[in-house]
Structures are given as C-alpha cells and as structure tokens.
Amino acid sequence: MNRRQEIEARLAAIRQDIETRGDTMNEEELAKLEEEVKKLTEERKQLEAAAERRNGLLSQIAGGAGAVMNVGQPSGAEGTQSRANDDPASSPEYRSAWLKNIRGIPMDEAERRAWSSTTTGSGPEVIPTQTQNAILRKVREYCGILEDITLLHVAGYVRFAVEGTVSAAVTHTENATITPGTDTVVNVELHAFELVKLIQISDTVRTMSIDAFEEWIADILGEKIAEGIEEQIFNGSGSGQGTGINNSQTWGASNSVTVAKTASLTADNVRALIALLPAGYDPAAVFYMSKKTLFTDFLPLEDDSKNKIVTVEGRNYFVYGYPVKLTNRMIYHEALLGAPKKVVGNLPENLTMHQQYDIKTNSYFYSGVAMFDCKLAIEEAFVKLNKATA
Q: Is 320 exposed, middle or buried (0-12, 13-18, 19+ CB in 10 A)?
C-alpha cells in the first residue's frame, strides 16, 4: 500500500468512526480528528502535486524530450504499467491516447497498449489523472467559495458530522459529580447530483497539440462546472440539486434585515445585520455579495464619525473588518454574512466525459459531467440582507 492509499484508508476509517459513534463523540475527540483530517488532506494535496509534476516530465519525455531507459524493468506494456504504478490512468501514454481518442486521431503503438490495458470497452472511458486534476484546478480557481466551505471528495452518498451546539466549560466543585455538557453534532446527508456542460468545437481540434487541447478542454469545462457549483452553493433549490444558502431556511426578522423597496442601505442596516449573527461565528465570518452591491450600496456608507465602513487593502475589501468576497450568484442589493465552513459540499474526483462527432456540422460535441451536492449544516451560521420587492 502506497502513502496515498494509506491516507485514503485512514480518511475512510475516520468517516466511518464519525458515522458510527455520532453524538457520543466528545469535543476533544472531534478536535483531534479535525486536526488529523486537516493534515492528511494537506499531505494528499502535496502528493497529487508531486504526481502531476512527475507526469508532466514523463509527458515531455514521451513527446521527444528524451528517451526512457528501462533498467531492470520489462519493456513494452509491462514497462508502461510500471510507470503508471497503481493508477493506470496516470501514465503519459494513456493520457495522450485518451486525448487522441476523443478527437478521432490514430494512436501510436505505445498508446494503443496503454489504452487496451486501461479501458473497459463499456461506458465513458476514465479521464486521465493529469487531465482530471487540470479540470479540478480550474473548478477551484473559478469557484472561490469552494476554498471556503467544508468540501468532501467522496463517491456517491455521504453522511458527514458537523459540530452543532457547543457548551462552555463550567466550574467544577472538587469531588462533585460532573454533568456532561449539551454539545451536539449535526449530521449532513449528501447525495450526488449531475452537473453537465455540453460544448461544441469544429474538426480543427484535430490540429491542436496534446497539451494545447488538454489546456483548452480543462479551462472551458472547469469554468462552466465551477459556475454550476457556485450557483448551487448559493441558490440551489434542494430538489434534484444541492440546497443553496439562500434556500436553506426561511428568512425573517430573526435572521435577516430587509431594506424597503424605495429606501437605500444605511450603516444602521449593516450594523443590525451583523448583530443578528451569533458571536461564535465571527472569527470565520465572510460577506458575500455582487460587485455592484459592494460599490453602489456599501462603499458610500459612513459611520457616525464619518468614517467609511468599508476598508480597502489592495484589492481586498472589508465591511467593519469582515472580509468581502464577490460573486455573481448574489442579486443586486442583497448580501450574506456567515461562516462558510458550516456549508458542506461533496465533489467526487471522478469527472466523466462523452464525445460524439457530428457529420452534419463537421464538429465534435464534448459533454463533461461532474457530481455535486451541498447543504448548510447550521442554519444560524448565516444571516441575510434583503431588498423588499413591494
């Protein structure tokens, strides 16, 4: 078992432990598991980055940058398999074979061997590891909130425990019986809903180099899948898709501030909104709003001392010290304030792609499919600024 497999096995064991024990786990145990998961996921990222660098070097060699000398290793298909280690889809030969196949370009002998030893012959073929990682990097780049939420990478259904109510430590009288606290854990159930992006490009894709085509397909699919994920995180209906923050609860006087239809936002409105968010969420709280809302509603505001309530550090904005993150998924005049880590999302790292040649237009259709689900685990973790419509 290699280190990546050890990490995955340990993360699976931790998930099973949380699901099995549930509410019986105390705060100390949860804190230890949280720290361990953080270290393991960071190590996994480093291993993935290192694997991508190795694959890039192998791709250069396979493309003519040098010759591979197999010392003490069998040649041909067995040599290709040894370089792929436990992941056949990570070999440079399979990568180039896959990228040629979806464009209808003939493969060379080494690519055909890698293709035949990796593919199943039924359903969409596995996207090469390097291409998968390139698409996922683009998804994270275009969907900034993915870095803020609690993001899982588990295939299919997952049940995840999130810290709920946490009681404070109490004074204990020596030798007296200790009464357990009222700490709670909230279980979040996530499924897998399809996100699909269909793109069309002319037959000229056959003239693109392997690297150029991979970069193009990763960029366009990554951007569009990111838009779909971001839309679900903020506005998902919960029916056949994730439940977005805006639809996670009923907004009223206890969790939102509404500005009258004909009125303008005031500093008092903003202060009232901040006051609604429980103090325990303050350290991780973030404002989410559109760029137009920030520049037309918030930037002109001043406090009672005529100081701007929005401060700017470079290209970073803060409202009363809370970071502001801009998104096109929030409508004009509205904003959210809350702790994004209380949003749990699941994005399995198993993207699939279908391709079809259209003889009528002499072009190729590519359909990228990702699975995603999300949910706000703790409703009180977000408050909302609304604009009345009547």
A: middle
Contact 43, 7 (CB under 8 A): yes
The DSSP result for 60-122, as a single string, is HIIIIIS----SSS--THHHHHHHHTT-GGGSHHHHHHHHHHTTTPPP-HHHHHHHHHH--SS
Sign of the torsion formed by the C-alpha atoms of 103, 97, 134 and 154: positive
Q: Where are the beta strands (DSSP E) in the chain?
A: 150-152, 158-163, 185-190, 193-202, 256-259, 286-289, 310-313, 316-319, 322-326, 335-338, 343-346, 352-358, 363-376, 382-387
How far apart CA 8 and CA 43 sit, in angstroms, is 11
Looking at mean pLDDT, say which of 30-44, 171-185, 256-270 comes out highest: 256-270
Calpha distance 309→216 (Å, rounded): 42
Q: Please give the Cα distance from 26 to 29 (Å, whole number).
A: 5
Q: For residue 312, with 0-12 CB atoms within 10 Å meaning exposed, 13-18 middle and 19 or more buried, which class applies?
A: exposed
Residue 229 has pLDDT above 50, yes or no: yes
This prediction's pTM: 0.70
d(CA 210, CA 35): 40
21 or 98: whose pLDDT is higher?
98
- The 10 Å Cβ neighbour count of residue 165 is 13
The whole-angstrom separation of Cα 175 and Cα 181 is 18
